């Protein structure tokens, strides 16, 4: 599914089709909705003639075909990738699927039963595969230079959104227009919400859901496994993150 912040219907003057100048390629559950909504605060990332268009498709990051196809479509497109601690991401992924299944009256399982089979980590579990950031990043770096992929620290965006957004403004060559007054902390939600154009809004209740408590030894097993992948990822992107 493609989600877009582009609410206008007419293409910009001199162009026949409004292609996005930037795409949030993922990662699923990384904070892609928050990033898109917060960038939307920016006057040039809105339905104005001068706007830049940003699309979000969280599934792209882990899609084997997306890098090649996007490169063929526009090899100079600026890519935004928001990542969070990959272990947290697995649990967030599980939580989303859990609630979707409940809604659709499908049976649900405890996260431990999906993560571990016969004592070993279940590598076929999609939520684990999607957290192998190094594996997916390699695929993108075959088609795009590292400089064209800006990584947003999703954990930092949760704690304090503005500095992460300022880095994105810079990456997209936008004037710095997003300000501290655009955010306020909502105690009830436990997350920052947005104040823009005289309106205040928080993200949908499906964003920022409480996570299940995962059995400690299973959690350690998952963390230990992801640690090596994280190290490889840090080398690939020449940057480290504070992941457990
Ligand atoms: P959780 O619901 O597991 O906490 P995505 O939009 O890619 O699906 O990411 C969802 C995640 O965005 C949420 O995962 C939440 O942690 C994170 N997030 C970041 N900033 C947020 C904000 N201001 N409000 C709500 N969720 C936010």
Automatic annotation (TrEMBL):
It is an enzyme of class 2 (transferase). Its EC number is 2.8.2.-. 3'-phosphoadenylyl sulfate binds at residues 29-33, 84, 92, 192, 207-211. Keywords: Disulfide bond, Glycoprotein, Transferase. The active site is at 29 (for sulfotransferase activity). Signal peptide: none annotated. Disulfide bonds join 193-202. Residues 20-207 form the Sulfotransferase domain. GO terms for molecular function: [heparan sulfate]-glucosamine 3-sulfotransferase activity. Belongs to the sulfotransferase 1 family. This is Sulfotransferase. The chain holds residues 100 to 343 of 343 of the full protein.
